[in-house]
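=== RUN LOG ===
request id: a7f3
mode: sequence -> structure
chains: 1
length: 67
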Amino acid sequence: MNAAMTHAARIAAQPPKAARLTKRLMKIAANMALKGFLDACAVFQGMCHNEPEHLEAVERLLASMKK
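=== RESULT ===
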């Protein structure tokens, strides 16, 4: 049970929109051809790129690379 709670906490700590889209991808994966699934993944990834959490993470990464 402890491992499940640890995993749940990791998921809950993720940006809400990304977690929702990931859950949606997991649900539709079994009913789609690979090409359609990969297209959906690309669309959802693009949707997350303009989220504040993503932009902040990119800024942190770039700042750490300058050091």
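=== NOTES ===
The chain has one domain: 15-66.
The first helix runs from residue 2 to 12.
=== END ===
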